[in-house]
């Protein structure tokens, strides 16, 4: 029984399934929010989660990862993210129902009343402060901060992992070269976050939780934050072992587990496999199929979608054209991630455009 | 006991500090906030929704609290830590073995992890309540920079114990810099920057070299990260936090439905 569960979990967590299931789960939770925001759901989730932890604790391989002191924050992160996602969706659902009946959102009644900072706010702050101080003290007494052997630049540990909060980016390295995964995409994340208030012209949903009034924005943030950030951190912490190979949570970290690399570029697919000829020597000619694909992705798609999306988001007001194009470009860069992942899993795609001569691989 | 308190409250010293009696009337509650430098960060009155825990999740406040914890514990750690390849590891090790209240390292590390979590959750809540919408666009941007700074603070601190974990995590992280377009020696476009066949951007001159003060993570890196971690980033972060809080008030207090 125990082994069957372990094998099942190991199978379930292989990157393709793990990612697909997470996507489906997130979208389903949002869609069926009427049911998923019930109080019993969150309690059930935590009960199952704790039961699983207790069960898995006894496994040597799982135990080795989970008891690393630096991994405790990740468990806290996971629990907090689950709880607060549920809470926000619940408030959003309740608010949407209230507003359908012509009532103000939950925050509405409370928003009208004003209370004195002293004592109403100050005591909340004080309680938070005391509780958190106590919590931190217990944690610090209970768990020693790790210290490994002294630095030795000659001995590379395997796996070498970035700090946990950057594991999402390290996971991207499986699919993209460092100039994208480590430089360009992070830059776009920061720039994209900063651009959000200037792109989103929807005046609704300012100052209260809602889903229906901001369905796209909320879904976008859930997908971006929960799927591409949090779930990648979980993946990177618990499921990536030596050589960044995948390991199930109950699997032994075998140093010699090597996944065969047989990935193929678009140029090879086009010239060699499709036209049955050697790849041309001229770089531009050689990469023209991939460049064409990227051209379609970054230029044709925004042009084609311009009318319908402009009409939906900005009432067709052409003065918002810059907003639209900035948004589309950011979204398309973001969209490149799942596209590349899917292509890797299905057709072993390595690069869409591969110009190693110039370190320019996409 | 009561008499003693009464007497203390009548002294000139007490009166010079607190310019109101116990805050249980509207007037004195207002004065309590207005005449106290720290409480003065707050407005006198707040929307009930703004102090509702299930609305703000208290995450901005907790982030700030953790920042203060980091400042205090960090200061104590600085008494014991020397940022050189020779001493760094030893000092961290000695902290556990020899220093009373060596707990400081634990508190500093766990609070740092927590701060990353709370800042993400704070941002999550701000997004989900649409609180970045006008008039709060600018404060959202200040927030994004604070987020980056929080991660940078955490990352620079990660190196300081100078053990295998630290050095290799930072090596993995900074290796990315060598692929920066034009500025890293393995980045696209870097090869274009050459004069008469002489490469301008190579392993000894690219951004990674600047970041690490060398071709790999070494003593120069340690000093550089130490200075940024203890002085540079905290100063910038503290300044931006002041702006952030000030802006929360100027933008009409914590958001709520209109
Ligand atoms: C070091 C990091 C940060 C600290 C200490 C901090 C602190 C705070 C505090 C105490 C508030 C008051 C309301 C609340 O607690 O929710 C607040 C509000 C706000 N924060 Fe932050 N914050 C930080 C980072 C961020 C980030 C990363 C963002 C977003 C990208 C952000 C955006 C905002 C906005 C827009 C408000 C106004 C929200 C409203 O009026 O409802 N902050 N911040």
Domain module tally of chain A: 3
| Biggest sheet descriptor of chain A | 2 strands, antiparallel
Please mark out the parts of chain A with pLDDT under 50 across 5 or more consecutive residues, or reply none.
none
The CATH topology of chain B is given as Cytochrome Bc1 Complex, Chain C
Q: What is the quaternary state of this protein?
A: heterodimer
CATH class of chain B: Mainly Alpha
- Biggest sheet strand order of chain A reads 2-3
Q: What share of the residues of chain A lie within helices?
A: 55-70%
Q: Give me the CATH architecture of chain B, please.
A: Up-down Bundle
Q: Report the major sheet of chain B.
A: 2 strands, antiparallel
Bin the strand percentage of chain B.
Answer: under 5%
Order of helices and strands of chain A: HHHHHHHEHHHHHHHEE
CATH superfamily of chain B: Cytochrome Bc1 Complex, Chain C
Structure in a nutshell:
The complex is a heterodimer of chains A (362) and B (258). Chain A is mainly α.
Describe this structure in words.
The complex is a heterodimer of chains A (362) and B (258). Chain A is 66% helix and 2% strand. Chain A is mostly helical and 362 residues long. Chain A folds into three domains: 2-105 and 208-244; 115-145; 266-361, no CATH class. In chain A, helix 6 packs antiparallel against helix 11 and helix 13 (283-314) packs across helix 14. In chain B, strands 2-3 form a two-stranded antiparallel sheet. The longest helix of chain B is centred in the last third of the chain and has 32 residues, at 219-250. The model of chain B has no long low-confidence stretch (mean pLDDT 88). With 258 residues, chain B is mainly alpha-helical. Chain B is globular, with a radius of gyration of 24 Å. Chain B has one domain (54-250): Up-down Bundle (Cytochrome Bc1 Complex, Chain C). Classes of the chains: A mainly alpha (362), B mainly alpha (258). Strand 1 (114-116) of chain A pairs antiparallel with strand 1 (45-47) of chain B, so a sheet runs across the interface. Protoporphyrin IX containing FE is lined by residues 56, 59-61, 63-64, 67, 119, 122-123, 126, 131-132, 136, 139-140, 143-144, 146-147, 150, 241, 244, 248, 254-255 of chain B.
